[in-house]
Every structure is written in structure tokens, then in C-alpha cells.
């Protein structure tokens, strides 16, 4: 898979995450690892920072369920509008995590 194909694969996967659910950067990387030969949460984060504006960027969070501080307020508003399970200022990863192939 070329770098451009990997960017497209990340964005396609993120676009499939249902409203109210999330994946961590690492989970996105893991879900694509076999097909892509890549398994870097940091790379997924870089792709989301550069190209993620057209997809549900707020549905990809760090492993603790948080967003970078500069995005936290807007992400929280989007999470609330979608009914995403929260624990204080973070997504409740235990109940909100999604994996490709799960029911939507």
C-alpha cells in the first residue's frame, strides 16, 4: 500500500465510525495493519491532523478518550450532539469504542 493509499484507507475507516462511537488512533492503525504493513498511532494522528477535516475527526481520540486541548471544546460539543458516552471531559472508551465489523 502506498502512502497515499494509506491516507485514503485511514479516512475511509474513520468515515465508517458510527455517530456516538469512537476509535483510538492506535485502534485505527491496528485495524489497517495487516492490509497496510503499517501500525503507527502517530502516523494516524498525523493523517487526521492534515487530512481529517472532511470526516468525523472527533470520533478518533487518544487511548484515554481525550482530544488535544485545542480541539477539546469542539469535540465535546460534537460528542454531546451524537450521544457519545462520556466520563467528565473524555469519551468513555469502555462503552464508546467501535471496531470495524461491529453493528452500526
Automatic annotation (TrEMBL):
- An example Pfam family from this entry, by short name, is DNA_binding_1
Molecular function GO terms recorded: methyltransferase activity
- Keyword check for DNA damage, yes or no: yes
Q: Does the keyword DNA damage apply?
A: yes
Per the record, the domain of life is Bacteria
Q: What GO biological process terms are annotated to this protein in UniProt?
A: DNA repair; methylation
Keywords, in A-Z order: DNA damage, Methyltransferase, Transferase
InterPro entries, per database record: ATL_DNA_repair, MethylDNA_cys_MeTrfase_DNA-bd, MethylDNA_cys_MeTrfase_DNAb, WH-like_DNA-bd_sf
Any idea where the Methylated-DNA-[protein]-cysteine S-methyltransferase DNA binding domain is? Answer: 8-80
Record protein name field: Cysteine methyltransferase
Originating species: Micromonospora radicis
Amino acid at each position: 500500500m502506498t502512502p497515499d493509499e494509506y491516507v485514503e484507507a485511514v479516512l475511509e475507516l474513520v468515515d465508517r465510525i458510527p455517530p456516538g462511537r469512537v476509535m483510538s488512533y492506535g485502534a485505527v492503525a491496528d485495524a489497517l495493519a495487516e492490509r497496510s504493513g503499517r501500525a503507527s498511532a502517530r502516523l494516524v494522528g498525523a493523517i487526521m491532523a492534515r487530512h481529517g477535516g472532511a470526516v468525523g475527526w472527533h470520533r478518533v481520540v487518544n487511548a484515554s478518550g481525550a482530544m488535544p486541548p485545542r480541539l477539546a471544546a469542539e469535540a465535546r460539543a460534537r460528542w454531546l450532539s451524537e450521544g457519545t458516552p462520556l466520563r467528565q471531559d473524555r469519551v468513555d472508551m469502555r462503552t464508546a469504542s467501535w471496531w470495524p465489523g461491529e453493528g452500526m
